[in-house]
Amino acid sequence: MPNVTLGPFPAARRFTGLDARVAEPITHNPAERRSWISRSIALLMVLAIAVILLVPNSLFADTTKTLTANTVFYPQGSGTAVQFKAGTVVTLNPQNQVISGTLAQNTVLYPQGSGTAVQFIAGGPVNFNIHGQVTSGVLAQNTVLYPQGSGTAVQFKGGQVVNFNIHGNVIYAFLAQNTVLYPQGSGTAVQFMAGSGITFNEHGQVISGYLAQNTALYPQSGGGAVQFKAGTKVTFNEKGLAR
């Protein structure tokens, strides 16, 4: 049998994971490397946009839920739990915290921008800002509060809605008793009726309210003073003229 010489054999090729040409497709040409990087970034951006578009909008949206039993939730942005009433609807943010709901029991909460707590009534609707403070609710009892922009406290009626500005002062509420206040733009005080709704401007002056007695006022239509009857809702312009 003839002698056969085998070899030399080529050196065995080593693989360490992916072929180097795949792992690093561009190794010498800087322009090609920059082009490859740009294409990779563009692809990643397309993939990120696709993921965002495919995620259900419900994950980022507020939702509503009808409660089958009295249920404890946290108002949005608050660390204090509150019980909400069975059979009513709560509006929840994506973190399952309450934006608005109906209280299951009388509850002491803070108006937005205020350091003074107020008791709100069971069965009354309540709305929270992003810090868990009340923007509007229903007072559980007659409560003394400050109209916005005013240094004079006023007693407001329990069982009625109250709206607060960002400083915790009253924009709108119901008077607990006949109360003398200044219409906006006027230097003449007017008595407004107990149990009626009243709206204040940013200086604590009355934009609209109900007269507690027959009152002579200057009308927006011009001319001399006109007698407005008790119980009439009156709206004042910036000059203090009534309609």
Q: What's the SSE pattern?
A: HHEEEEEEEEEEEEEEEEEEEE
Helix content: 10-25%
DSSP summary, beta strand count: 20
- Which overall shape is indicated by the principal axes computed on the Cα atoms? elongated
| Poorly predicted runs | 17-23
- Termini Cα gap: 127 Å
Characterise the protein shown here.
The chain has 243 residues and is mainly beta. The chain folds into 2 domains: 20-55; 62-235, no CATH class. It is 12% helix and 30% strand. It has 2 helices and 20 strands. It has helices at 20-23, 30-54; strands at residues 63-66, 71-73, 82-84, 89-92, 98-102, 107-109, 118-120, 125-128, 134-138, 143-145, 154-156, 161-164, 170-174, 179-181, 190-192, 197-200, 206-210, 215-217, 226-228, 233-235. The chain has a 10-stranded antiparallel sheet, with no helix packed on it. β12 and β13 (170-174) form a beta hairpin. The relative contact order is 0.08. Residues 17-23 have low confidence and may be disordered.
Topology record:
Layout: H1 20-23, H2 30-54, E1 63-66, E2 71-73, E3 82-84, E4 89-92, E5 98-102, E6 107-109, E7 118-120, E8 125-128, E9 134-138, E10 143-145, E11 154-156, E12 161-164, E13 170-174, E14 179-181, E15 190-192, E16 197-200, E17 206-210, E18 215-217, E19 226-228, E20 233-235
Antiparallel strand pairs: 1-4, 2-3, 4-5, 5-8, 6-7, 8-9, 9-12, 10-11, 12-13, 13-16, 14-15, 16-17, 17-20, 18-19
